[in-house]
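Researcher: Hi, I'm a grad student and pretty new to this. My advisor asked me to get structures for two proteins we've been looking at. I'm not sure of the right format, so I'll just paste the first sequence and hope you can take it from there.
Model: That works fine. Here's the first sequence with its structure tokens right after it:
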Amino acid sequence: IGTQKNVNYQEGITSMNSIDYVSKKDPNLKLRGTVGGSVARDIRDEDTHVGYIVKGTGEYTKNLKDWARGIFQPKTAKVKLEAYQTTPDFYIASSDATSRNDRIGGKASGSVSFNSTNVSGGYNKYYSNINKRYEGGTINFDEYNINAQTRVPKIATVRYNLHHRRGSNDLGRNKNYYFEGNISRDISKYARVQGGIRKNVYDTRYYE
């Protein structure tokens, strides 16, 4: 419509299938296995490609109410582990799925809530361009994130989010991080005042 151009050059189909398991001895333990496949076509050169994804996930949730002591009132804690592999030509059917890359790695994440505070975070380690499709060789990625929110009684609700990613290969390395801080307060049943700050930083260095 008008001067707008659709930059999505791929079309195709994706199938995602999973199986869940909940332990009879401990319902807090959940396992999931996922397998997916895709067939897609690049409309620019009529190239058809096939890809797949496999992923295994384990999750454990613990009720912490028995640990309550005085003013310390814990609620729940959750730990999640994940291992995955995506082939270079795996395609997720959507309106803007133009990228094609491989990933193999693992992720660990967790969260805990107590009183009026929630804290969560995760670490993701993976490798990409293993088949050397692009110049520079295998890319080594490290990602982590931290998220926290707490309510200070009669004062305000405070929220903080941080995401950091670092990637490197034979050509160089790239780091970027994003953080956000926010404070909000309800001044009436129908009104809220809030303020915050956001920052996004990129740092790229090429090896000589």
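Researcher: Oh nice, that was easy. Here's the second one.
Model: And its structure:
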Amino acid sequence: LIVLNTNGDTNIHYFPLTEEEIRSSLLLMTEKNIKFIVYYPENVLQKPVLWTHSNDIASEVYPRYSYFSDIVVSSKSDIERKMKKDRPCMITIKPKSLSIFRNLISQKFAGDVESGSVSLNSTEVTVNGSGITKATAVKTIAEYYQTPLEKILVAGNDQNDFSMLSLPVGKRFIVGKFLSGMLTVPVTSVKNPQRLGSALYEFAKKL
């Protein structure tokens, strides 16, 4: 997980995956079950890297992802070497079939799934360093800016947002239906990002 300063050009705090965590993630990836992965390098001036083993998949994802990521087609051994050099803080795995991949993740990362470091989202899997979640990032920001959690607003739409939304913050928004009914704390639900923008605007006017 990465926490940036307000200019977005410096790491306030960086939580890289270990080489063993990178290796464990890549062990799950085969041509049969992986469409692509995306990871974020330590250097904030570098684009995220989207890796796939297939030129056909690269051509398929290029129109949607090329504007914000560098698309790499290579072998697993090549991308493992690159990832060790880039020291990613998060790996997002896009499987061909989430239902089949879910069992593999649950077996390999059972403890990390329980802690929230590995999230089985609606369409993908997110892998952070062991014990690192979005709640870690929010608490790091609060400490850095010396801001009480009750003065912080958070919003999320997927499983990897659960830890952050469970914090004792001042306001919580959930976007869409995926998290509906999963949280036991007060939340405000909005249908889509556009509605979230309107809700944030109205909330800010009251500050």
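Researcher: Is there anything I should tell my advisor about the second?
Model: You could mention this: The mean pLDDT is 85.
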